[in-house]
Automatic annotation (TrEMBL):
It comes from the Bacteria. Pfam families: LytTR, Response_reg. SMART domains: LytTR. GO terms for molecular function: DNA binding; phosphorelay response regulator activity. Coiled coil: none annotated. This is Response regulator transcription factor. Residues 3-117 form the Response regulatory domain. Residues 130-229 form the HTH LytTR-type domain.
């Protein structure tokens, strides 16, 4: 099993990168930390095949962390990619004995993972996931974990069993999402899509109650005929 270490102060960025990596390669063992010192502790006791590093940490810069990684015997040639949100013109990697060090915008994680075996492997059950991209972040969501989706005030809210994800509605319309979700999801209102797996009960043809959700969702007039069946 290949191992990846992600060291990045912004937890949301790190988790997004990890989700993308898992989606691309389902055999990865991923370690995440927001502290450079903690990353060095992990490196002393584990072997890693790839590093994704942020550019700034509380105790040092990403460049300094990379140089310390290069000082460890097992990682003198391990690929290191830096996570950047904007291009960096000057990049001093003097003292690091590997040309495979690159600046990596988040959207290029797939290219980084190619170092493992020359090609990326998509999870066999990728059809069970939906991938949403927004502001450089990638959200890989298991469809089975989606309870319902809401469209409200210019945003789409994907409510899962673990979290709520917000994306602008101009990027993902409800119609497009319903097409991608396909079987198991129905539209009960122009503002709501529900996962039938979580439907608990109906109150006539007016509202639908879902498991793990405190509020009942309305059933729009346009969709009432479906719920009469």
């Amino acid at each position: 099993m290949s191992s990846l270490l992600i060291a990045e102060e912004e937890s949301a960025v790190a988790e997004s990168l990890a989700d993308t990596a898992r989606y691309i390669r389902n055999d990865l063992n991923i370690t995440i930390t927001k502290h450079a010192k903690e990353a060095l502790k992990y490196i002393k006791i584990n072997h890693y095949d790839l590093f994704l590093l942020g550019m700034e940490f509380e105790s040092c810069t990403g460049i300094e962390l990379a140089k310390k990684i290069r000082e460890t015997e097992n990682h003198k040639l391990t690929p290191i990619f830096f996570i950047v949100s904007v291009p960096v013109k000057k990049f001093d990697i003097s003292g690091m004995s590997c040309s495979d060090i690159k600046l990596l915008p988040e959207r290029e994680v797939r290219k980084a993972l190619e170092v493992f075996d020359g090609e990326t492997e998509k999870d066999d059950d990728s059809k069970n996931h939906i991938v949403l991209h927004h502001k450089g972040h990638t959200h890989v969501i298991n469809k089975d974990e989606i309870i319902y989706i809401e469209s409200n005030k210019g945003s789409i809210f994907v409510n899962t069993i673990n979290k709520k994800i917000e994306i602008p509605s101009y990027k993902f319309t409800m119609e497009k999402l319903l097409t991608e979700l396909a079987e198991g999801f129905i539209r009960c209102h122009r503002e709501y899509i529900v996962n039938t797996k979580y439907v608990e009960e109906f109150e006539g043809t007016d509202v639908v109650k879902l498991k793990n959700v405190d509020i009942a969702l309305p059933i729009g007039r346009k969709y009432k005929d479906f719920f009469k069946k």
